[in-house]
Amino acid sequence: MEREMGEVVKRPQSPLRLTLWGRNPASNQINVISTIANYDRVEIYNLNGQKILEFTNVSGTQSLNIAILPSGLYVLAIVHSETMDYTKFIKQ
Asked: Whole-model pTM?
């Protein structure tokens, strides 16, 4: 399905919500807070859509080490079953 540039895509309502806590831009770690205690994984993508990092066995509030990432803008996605929430962050 093709979409027009700037078209708003509504996601179905989900109890899954993602919050980044701490500094943005981040240097070596980011703190993820989720509304769901146990979720499947956290994924980090570059702006080309390539998955750069994946964290499994994560839950609730989690501190993630991103020291290996080069400086830039990234998308962080939290995945639970068929649901995903995401946000952008800057790596300093």
From this structure: 0.75
